[in-house]
Write a structure and sequence with these properties.
It contains eight helices and seven strands, in the order αααααββββαβαβαβ. The two termini are 35 Å apart. The protein is elongated. The strands form two sheets. The protein has a five-stranded mixed beta sheet with strand order 4-1-5-7-6, sandwiched between helices. It has a two-stranded antiparallel ribbon with strand order 2-3. By secondary structure, the protein is an alpha/beta fold. Its main location: endoplasmic reticulum. It is found in: Endoplasmic reticulum membrane. This is Alg9-like mannosyltransferase. GO terms for molecular function: glycosyltransferase activity.
Length: 290
Amino acid sequence: EPRFLIPLTFPIILLHGPKLVTGFCAHYPFRVENPWLRLCYDKFLCTKSSAMYVMKIWYFANIALTVFFGFMHQAGVFPMAQHFEQQMKLKAPDQHIHLITSHTYMFPLSLVNIPSTQMVHYNTQTGQRYKKRKDFYLYEYGGLDMPQLMSRIRLIMSHCELKKETKKLRYRLFLAIPSSLSDDLNLALVQSNATYMNYELRHVFYPHVSTEALPQFLGRHPGIVDPPHWSDDDLKGTCLLEQEPELSFSYASKQLSSFIHQFGLALYEFELKRNMPKNKKTLTKTKCYT
């Protein structure tokens, strides 16, 4: 984790900062005079040869790392928190929000402005004291494998359905994962044979890079990875046959667009499908790349 190396920044600057001006070596560093060592010093290590390049590398590395860690690495978490802040304001009082995250950093609950369920409130009109009911649930699973993640989703959904039937509490179940895992999520849903479950892509927050799930050049655009709609007879959204790649400009541009759009944080909503399909069809249990 680069953040754990921050305390070393100051001593490293004190020790190696002068090299930005003097280069790697201001004087011949080797004990023995040798033609090859002298050539190496003159071409790469001396002040005249290395100082300019060291400074350029230093500038480039700082700019690149600032852009990556400051604006791209896990950058979709903050706008997603703002999104759920609006969802909490607009939802019905009898509705609970369940958010599952995987392959992302910890979700900042403080940005959602959720009222504390431990604080005692006082009603000036009735004189009663009360606590607000918890209506936002967060499940963080780190880098959990997709099959295990699907089992957790099924477990949470079954618990929510039980509360819906017994306590009349409606719910919405969301999953936030890097968009580079959209195809893996679709594959896991098909392999789990969860015909009672359906999910839809609600939003993609850009930019977002997770080193635990880096984009793949052969991955599909998250917007065209359609989940299997079990209620439809044709199972729309499921790729029955893997398409062979074609060496053409349109294919290359499409793959480049898909690769770029994988730098996002995808938000899916899971729902229980109560109507079963009339006709069953065979689904492929392999990834589809187009």
